[in-house]
Amino acid sequence: MEIDKNSLVPIYEQVMDYIKKKIEKGEWKKGDKISTEKDLMELFDVSRGTIKKAISLLVEEKVLTQKQGKGTFVIDENISFPLAEGLISFSESMKSQGIDFETELINLEKKKADEKIAEQLKINIGDDYLFIERTRTVHDEVVMFIQNNINIQLAPNIDTADYAHESLFNIVEKYSEHKVAYSETSFAAVPSTKTISELLHIEENSPLLYQEQLVHLEDDSIIELGRVWLKSNKFYVGSILQRL
Q1: Which residue, of 126, 203, 215, 233, has the greatest Cβ tally within 10 A?
Q2: 24 burial class (0-12, 13-18, 19+ CB within 10 angstroms)?
Q3: Last residue of a domain, which of 54, 74, 94?
Q4: Of 30, 49, 74, which residue constitutes the final position of a domain?
């Protein structure tokens, strides 16, 4: 494709049209890496600033996404949760992928620990803990349901935080005054219950990806037991494994 530098259409818009047409024709599919800025500069004989502007606008339009050190990619509807990038929350993971989302706080209350919760959080039976329920929405679709069980003995006043807009790990570190260190995490495929199906707007017994994790602070104490149910057609878990 040649750029018409005499056209009334700005050059960066012509570059944007070229990229969009490549995607529409299937030459660049969802998740594919597109040509580098240098290659596009040489192809169109234009400045780096022009290419950067075109790509930046397409990122804003949610057509492309940029990954630091890796390049520019066509937006993929599936949301990756990369295990190899260390311990990050789902909100931090989605933000790093340039995915806009909204969090709805459904329930926040103090509860008395039963035997199972007490054992998992390493607190006494009958101690208070904070129970939170939330959903996350991406592109007007509810994609996950989250339950958090927080050891409030380690984080006084943590029940006053803004769980609809702040990252859980940031909240935990702020109120506990300790860094989140590591988690014990497991994944499983599970059928959706009636309650979760209603929250996620899916059929009962639909397949879900279930995550459960115990989050430890730097002093090895357990601050949170988290449970997350994710639409299996929207999430995948990725990892990089090195041969020993």
Answers
A1: 215
A2: exposed
A3: 74
A4: 74
Residue 26 belongs to domain with CATH number: 1.10.10.10
- 231 token code pair: 């639409």
- From residue 171, alpha-carbon distances to 21, 47, 163, 204 in Å are 43, 43, 8, 33
How far is 56 from 64, CA to CA, in rounded Å?
8
The answer on pLDDT for 76 being more than 80 is no
Q: d(Cα 142, Cα 136) in Å, to the nearest integer?
A: 6
Residues 42 and 88 in one domain: no
Q: What average pLDDT score do residues 5-9 get?
A: 87
Cite the beta strand spans of the chain per DSSP E: 64-67, 71-74, 79-82, 102-112, 128-138, 141-150, 180-191, 207-217, 222-231, 235-238
Q: Looking at the structure, tell me whether residues 176 and 208 fall in a common domain.
A: yes
Confidence of residue 80 (pLDDT cuts 50, 70, 90): low
DSSP state of 218: T
Measured CA to CA, the distance from residue 225 to residue 148 in angstroms comes to 6
Question: Given CA atoms 130, 230, 92, 103 in this order, what sign does their dihedral have?
Answer: negative
pLDDT-derived band of residue 84, with 50, 70 and 90 as boundaries? very low
Q: Are residues 101 and 140 in the same domain?
A: yes
Domain containing residue 61 = 11-74
Task: Give the pLDDT of residue 25.
Answer: 85
Asked whether residue 122 falls in the same domain as residue 182, the answer is yes
What angle, rounded to 10 degrees, do the helices at 11-24 and 48-60 form? 50
